[in-house]
Design brief:
This protein is of the alpha/beta class. It contains 13 helices and eleven strands. The chain is globular.
Length: about 300
């Protein structure tokens, strides 16, 4: 019998919802998705979550609770990533969410964030685990995961589209952060780079000039380095209002997309790869399949 699950990912830039049915054999059927730009990580460098950012996020979570009730969700997973992980006032935010929206939030470590994203990719893309390197460019952090001799290797870097927009980072500084990952991957060919997260899916939509976002055209799209460089050049030359009108770009992402595109470009250059395969299946899918409390307990007992 299928279990209806509701998963929320409280990210640095956006808060996302996935409602799906998990069938026998770990097959996820997506029923409903939603994305709200809550920008919880506004002023990420300040070390504390801003009151207005927390209020925006709590309002969104209340709406998501209503949606989950309407769809008859059986099990709920609510996870938070870099912005909450690093916040000096994270306990205040967690208490606020529990009181105002009724959710207990699980704050993921960088390793957990990377692992769930990786498992989500493998569940939704025809990818060989031993030949896949997943990169998740988020608002506050960038995760890399690959498998070495059957053991997942996770690296979480303090690189993100919101973080870099607020505090500028040169290409050389980004490259210095990514270089240790490149060294670990050197000589481990063949592998292909798979990208998840709002920056990468946006670049895929922009490359195809999608006036209406189409997940089926984004999922599995092969984004070439030359295309990333062309899009970045256009973004840098355009003002923010002009960016908001570009096909494939959500207006709410117009301020942070140049920084995100720069991270993707540097990652591809440093890893010496000419293309990145884009995946719509990501951390939400990984959490829906493997992050539910009873599933986690069974998995631990099995090992």
């Amino acid at each position: 019998m299928a279990v209806t699950v509701g998963v929320i990912d409280i990210g640095t830039n956006s808060t996302r919802l996935l409602i799906g049915r998990v069938h026998a054999g770990d097959r996820l059927e997506v029923v409903k998705t939603a994305l709200t730009t809550t920008r919880l990580g506004e002023n990420l460098a300040g070390g504390a979550l801003l009151e207005r950012a927390m209020a925006r996020t709590v309002d969104c979570l209340r709406e998501y609770r209503k949606l989950m009730a309407a769809f008859g969700v059986d099990e709920v997973v609510v996870a938070a990533t870099a912005a909450v992980r690093e916040a000096a006032n994270r306990n205040r935010f967690l208490a606020l969410v529990e009181k105002a929206a009724g959710f207990k939030v699980r704050v993921l470590s960088g390793r957990e964030e990377a692992l769930y994203g990786y498992r989500g990719v493998l569940s939704g893309l025809d990818a060989a685990p031993g030949e896949t390197v997943v990169v998740d460019v988020g608002g506050g952090s960038t995760e890399f995961v690959w498998s070495w001799e059957g053991v997942p290797q996770c690296r979480s870097l303090p690189l993100g589209a919101v973080r870099m927009t607020e505090g500028c980072c040169t290409d050389a500084e980004i490259a210095a952060l990514v270089s240790p990952v490149a060294k670990e991957l050197a000589g481990r060919w063949p592998w292909r780079l798979v990208g998840v997260g709002g920056t990468v899916t946006t670049l895929a939509a922009m490359a195809q000039k999608l006036t209406v976002y189409d997940p089926e055209r984004v999922h599995g799209f092969r984004l070439r380095l030359g295309e990333v460089e062309r899009i970045l050049e256009r973004l840098v030359l355009a003002g923010i209002e002009e960016r908001k009108r570009m096909p494939g770009l959500q207006p709410e992402r117009a301020d942070i997309i140049p920084a995100g595109a720069r991270i993707v470009r540097v990652v591809m250059r440093v890893l010496d790869t000419r293309e990145i395969t884009v995946s719509e299946a990501d951390i939400l899918h990984g959490l829906a399949l493997y992050g539910r409390p009873n599933v986690e307990t069974k998995s631990r007992n099995h090992h």
